[in-house]
Amino acid sequence: MTVATPALTRASGDFQRPDVATQWQLMWWRFKRHHMAMIGLGALGLFLFISVFAEFVAPYGPLQRSKSYLGGEPMPIHFFDAQGDFHLRPFVYARVSKRDPVTLRLLPVVDQQRVWPIELFVRGDSYKFWGLIESDLHLFGVKEGFVHFFGTDHLGRDQFSRTMYATRISMSVGIVGVAVSFVLGTIIGGISGYFGGMADMLIMRLIEFIRSIPTLPLWLALSAALPRDWTSLQVYVAITVLLALIGWTHLARTVRSKLLALREEEFVIAARLSGCSDARLVGRHLLPSFLSFLIVDLTIAFPEVLLAETSLSFLGLGLREPAESWGVLLYAAQNIRSIAHMPWLLIPGAFVIVAALAFNFIGDGMRDAADPYAK
């Protein structure tokens, strides 16, 4: 008599044993087969790295001005000079100021006779890492001249550096907002789905009322109620809380529907008969049984919070300078004159699109990985 052994598959250098793997291991193995989700995970990792080390990645401070390069266009990286010679170290061409004969304005002009080599780990402007550790080491820079990969705005501020700092604010607003929404949605949805009755009816009517209000006018009304004399930190906290107070409804309905389907299952009855309290029953038994679906909802909810903050800041009702966020940077590109003369001010919009797509790809991959019938 022979006993059939489970098939072994090789992935990432080790053997996978589906018969002894945990639920999270099975989800991870299925998630790795989703190529777009892995690309989104890589993009998210890059954004998180920039958020943590923004001072180190940015070659300049967010408020530092380059007075000789006001409204300057992006400076591309070169490896071959004007004579066709190859340079092992990348460089940018130098800029010189020449006066326009018509408008008499000083305009930066490319000087192909001089190059400014780009070096790694350059000492530059001092900063305090997360306001704690003082340093002047930057990931890259030039020892002579300046380098502006994304150009500069009308004040001469480096757009690349400001975008790096804005990544931290925008990502933190999304993460904190989604975290608060998760707590509110889990608690309120858990009460509605587990206890039912009058509590369920009142909570569902509240959710329907909130979701019936058009989203954009609701954001505008709540943001317009903020005092105009508040500091950037106060506005940041208020916007995060407001977005969280609006975004919990979808997750609460998901939790309610799952609890309604599971509260009469045998394992729930057994836990109740063993003397398990209601809070422990929901927190230790019911919620973990569909935690993978909650994580999928969180990854899908993040782009909504991110786009909400960007939209409010773009309209001038969210975060305001000197705070930097993707929406604040896009606010400078509101008028047609800025877009016509400085189209590179729209580059932060590409970061918003990439971040939203990354989370959507991750959510799609996690949804497939959490499906027990997926192949």
Features:
375 residues; alpha+beta; MetI-like fold; 3-stranded antiparallel beta sheet; two-stranded antiparallel ribbon; 14 helices; 15% strand; elongated
Indicate the structural class: alpha+beta
Percent of sequence in beta strands: 5-15%
How helical, in percent, are the residues? Answer: 40-55%
CATH H-level superfamily title of the largest domain: MetI-like
- What's the CATH topology label of the largest domain? MetI-like fold
Q: How many β-strand stretches?
A: 7
* Overall form: elongated
The multimeric state of the shown protein is single chain
The CATH architecture of the largest domain is: Orthogonal Bundle
Task: Describe this entry's structure for a reader.
With about 375 residues, this protein is of the alpha+beta class. It has helices at about 25-30, 35-50, 55, 160-195, 195-210, 215-225, 230-245, 250-260, 265-275, 280-290, 290-315, 325-330, 335-340, 345-370, and strands at about 10, 15, 80, 85-100, 105-115, 120-130, 135-140. The strands form three sheets. It has a three-stranded antiparallel beta sheet, with no helix packed on it. It has two domains: about 60-155, no CATH class; about 160-370, MetI-like (MetI-like fold). Helix 4 crosses helix 11 (about 290-315), helix 7 crosses helix 11 (about 290-315) and helix 9 runs antiparallel to helix 10. The protein is built from 14 helices and seven strands. The two termini are about 30 Å apart. The protein is elongated, with a radius of gyration of 26 Å.
